[in-house]
Write a structure and sequence with these properties.
The chain has 4 helices and 4 strands. The chain is an alpha+beta fold. Strands 2-1-3-4 form a 4-stranded mixed sheet. Strand 1, helix 3 and strand 2 form a beta-alpha-beta unit. Helix 1 packs antiparallel against helix 4 and helix 2 packs across helix 3.
């Protein structure tokens, strides 16, 4: 009995997980490295930009605060200047207004006095003032200076039965209108006095 020698062929196994030194692994490593570096760069850039924005925001806030303070100071200065000007000018204007009122009244008295120096004109004007704006049937009498009535030559108001009564207490050019309830004062002096009071009240 003979035996033939048995020979075995060498089995070759494929490399399942060889150590990374292939071109594909190098590419993967490079890509990973690039991605990591890119992400770090982006984060660093964002951090720098955020820091710059915060610095600019703080600078803008400081600038705005400074401008607000300057505006407030300018407005306060304007108010103070206006108050000072008002304090200086108002008394002068009030004094000037008072002087003008007094001057106007004095001038009015002069003008009225000059007009009434014409006694006929003064007597006629007194009678007109006595009946101006009143309801004639309600008038009982008109009192006037006797010389004015003598100059007019009237005993009653023309066209009515209203009596014209001489009153020596009235100066020439004055008149009083009598009603059942009282009198209408048509005297020049009292009219000027009322005007003076009204003007002084308007000036205060």
């Amino acid at each position: 009995m003979s035996y033939e020698p048995v020979t075995f062929e060498t089995v070759k196994f494929g490399v399942l997980n060889p150590l990374s030194d292939t071109s594909s692994d190098r590419l993967n490593s490079q890509a990973h490295g690039y991605a990591t570096g890119y992400a770090q760069g982006i984060r660093a850039a964002e951090a720098v930009a955020r820091t710059q924005r915060e610095v600019l925001a703080r600078a803008a806030a400081v600038g705005q605060s400074a401008r607000d303070e300057e505006h407030a100071a300018a407005i306060a200065a304007l108010h103070a200047a206006a108050a000072a000007l008002h304090a200086c000018t108002v008394p002068v204007l009030e004094q000037a207004s008072t002087v003008m009122v007094e001057s106007a009244l004095l001038l009015a008295e002069k003008i009225v006095g000059a007009e009434l120096s014409n006694h006929r004109f003064g007597a006629k004007a007194a009678l007109d003032r006595a009946m101006d704006g009143v309801d004639a049937p309600t008038v009982r009498q008109v009192r006037m200076n006797p010389k004015d009535l003598e100059l007019l030559g009237l005993e009653t108001l023309p066209g009515t039965d209203i009596a014209l009564i001489p009153d020596p207490s009235l100066i020439r050019g004055d008149a009083l209108t009598a009603f059942d309830e009282g009198f209408l004062d048509a005297r020049i002096a009292t009219a000027l006095e009322r005007a003076q009071i009204a003007l002084r009240r308007a000036g205060t």
